[in-house]
Amino acid sequence: MDLFYLAYAVGFFGLSWATINRPDDIVAFVALAVSGLVAAAFGRRRARSSEMLGRARHDVDALGRVAEGLVTGAPLDAVLEDFRRAFRLAGLVVRQADERLAAAAPPGYAARSTPVVALDPRTLLGDERRHRLGRRGFRLPEGGGRLRLAGDPEPLWLDLWEGDEEGLSVDEHRALAVATMMLRLALRPGPTPSAQS
Description:
Layout: H1 2-19, H2 23-71, H3 76-86, E1 89-96, E2 101-105, E3 117-118, E4 145-150, E5 156-162, H4 170-187
Parallel strand pairs: 3-4
Antiparallel strand pairs: 1-2, 1-5, 4-5
Helix pairs in contact: 1-2, 2-3, 2-4
């Protein structure tokens, strides 16, 4: 839309400059050019707002699917798969204290080695000094990150690996942190989950 208005203004400028003979023509030309610039600015703002609204809808839908899976008692593997797709993650694994598998999405990630970087549950940032950023924003640690889902006596761990090197926007990062908190709340009070097939 912006390019259309810009091309229109440039074309009009090129054609009109050769035919402007009177002061009234100059005033009309300036008024038209200003109108084109204002329309372009509003078009850009509208496109940004529409994009932000679309991303917010996606995040809310993702959180809704995770919540629904947890509340309805869906298999943990299925919940993790929805979670993984919603946030463009490469893999998610839930392990018990003795490193036994509780669930994995996709299943091949069950064989992956445990990430060494512990993640803060509120920020999902690791304890390393330098944090990775992509074009969109936040990135998980290179070898994945580990989040403690439940405490003693039977700790549960969630291992996460990123799937998009462009990272997550600020809103996606917040939604991911909320989704991990939902997992923590759902898995902490109940019995230790067993592997789902």
